[in-house]
Write a structure and sequence with these properties.
The complex is a heterodimer of chains A (116) and B (168). Chain A has 116 residues and is mainly alpha-helical. Chain A is built from 3 helices and no strands. Chain A has a domain at 54-116: Methane Monooxygenase Hydroxylase, Chain G, domain 1 (Up-down Bundle), CATH 1.20.58.1610. By secondary structure, chain B is an all-alpha fold. The longest helix of chain B has 27 residues, at 141-167. Classes of the chains: A mainly alpha (116), B mainly alpha (168).
Amino acid sequence: MTKLYLLLFFILGVSLVGVALLISYLFHPKSTNPQKAEPYECGIKTHGPSWVQFNVGYYLFAILFLIFDVDTVFIFPWAVVMKDMGVAGLVEILIFFVVLGLGLLYGWKKGALKWE
Amino acid sequence: MEQFFFYFISAIILIFSILTVVGRKILRVAVYLLFALIGIAALFFLMDYYFQGAVQLMIYAGGIIVLIIFSIMLTSNIDLKFERVSRKKSMASALLCGTGALITSWAILTFDFKPSGLPPLENSMRQLGFSLLGRGAGGYVLPFEVITILLLAAMVGAIVIAKKQKNE
């Protein structure tokens, strides 16, 4: 039954956006001129491609984010049974956090968290 | 209803996977891959594997894709288009992939799957939490703690490699 609701929800969502786009397509005034295609109404046109090489620093942050992302996966099941596990669960997760904290501390010490 | 969703999601995954392989603009290909991974998460949700679906969304769609997009943006030639593959090459690879898919589906279809007769495992976050943190029989607390060492090694390794590249 819930799957039926999901299907209805999906159809309704798609058709809402589709109908809105269709109505605006039917009613909007059609006019084209070169000024319309410009990126800004005023100011200077951009020179060269807008793709630039990004700072390598982003990559380090992305990797650190990914590793902590994996950590959260392991913390979720603990959070659900936290009350039932009691002190034993708390100790287990504390060990988990301490070891990971060491990693963060290492990164901090090495200046990986500093923006250059 | 369930079947309809299964085929619908599978079709989305297939389309975006093929687009990922044949696409020629690298950043668009990354986004196609994102959609394919989200489709796999949807399949997990369809099978009531909520935790696995959430993990798929978080790690693959949220983490790996960010990493891939960052690595694309760090390379200098982002708007570089891949060369058009010659007809001969694409035919050969299509043939190879098709044969692989055929063999795999043949193996699956002809294999005699027998129900094990064991009671089905309760698939819930609570069950998972008890198993992961349990110290008795069927508990996985030692692997749980060893994983942290693995993650620590990954973190230290990533920092060392990235810092080395930065200094050069």
